[in-house]
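Let us walk through a complete example step by step. Step one is to write down the protein sequence. Step two is to encode the small molecule, fe (ii) ion, as a SMILES string so that its atoms and bonds are unambiguous. Step three, shown after the inputs, is the structure prediction itself.
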Amino acid sequence: MREPNRCQAMIVERHGKLSEADFRDNFLIPRHPVVLTCAIDAWPACGLWSLDFFRSRYGDRMFVCRGQRESVRLADYIDSLAESSFDQPAPYLRNINIQSDWPELISDISPAVCYSRADWLSSRLMPKNWPRPHHLNQFFMSGTGTKIPLHYDDWMTHNVVSNLIGEKEFLLFDPDQGQYLYPSDKAYLVSKIPDPFAVDLAQFPAFALARQVRVALGPGESLFVPCGWWHTTRTLSTCISVSSSFANRHNWSAVVAEMRRLRSFSGSAVWKTHMICWYLTAVGALLGLASVLHSASGLGSFRVGSKV
Ligand SMILES: O=C(O)CCC(=O)C(=O)O
Ligand SMILES: [Fe+2]
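Step three: the predicted structure of the complex.
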């Protein structure tokens, strides 16, 4: 039996001013996570968003937290966060689609993080009924001890998770560690391990072989989670976060392959899968060509994916 890999943990670098080219060459293309400490400095949400901000403006709005049946007033949910603890964590208010469900918040999280701005999934060439919404930014609020299941993101998108308040710990695993993570038989992209922060090795012995990366994200910091990387989080103190997922030339073939895999897994018609994947490949070729022309011409208004 091999020794547990935990001691070989990779370090996640932290960078302040990182040029888009350095991000592309050192993190986006090789698919390495990185903490970006200045990526959201220009967001009005920094300094504006707080528990009081959401309580006073949106306290009467009703939400259903993940895994709960009943909806809850946001003000009551926020009050309950004071009681949240590692032993008794509050439920997670998560994956709220900001564009569709809370559009007035968009101006607070603008301009978009430069590293995630080039999103081919938001192209007009993508069908309206594409299963992943265009311009996907999601909202998360959590209390001390709240966790999210171990998963990798839908459609092999890259992701930048930005923390506005509080501290959150991420546990990350390179895609090739999936063999030790007990992917669910159903969706594959969620692990069967109930709590990756306290794994029962008698039940999940292979987990001991998984090489993991831990990193904490503080207020104003963002984490680049490359496509296919397994991740889970544990909130260390009450958090408000926003995620922004994207795909472009550097993970487009992974997006197409994931579409093929998921459709064949769900028994979809083979001819239709071929048509969809052919279309996505053609979209990628067009957008790739357009972004090369864009770089060559320096046309600022020709926005299809820019430098990355
Ligand atoms: O912030 C978290 O707790 C998890 C975020 C996440 O998994 C995501 O945005 O894909
Ligand atoms: Fe995720």
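Step four is interpretation. Residues 6-249 form a domain with the Jelly Rolls fold (CATH 2.60.120.650).
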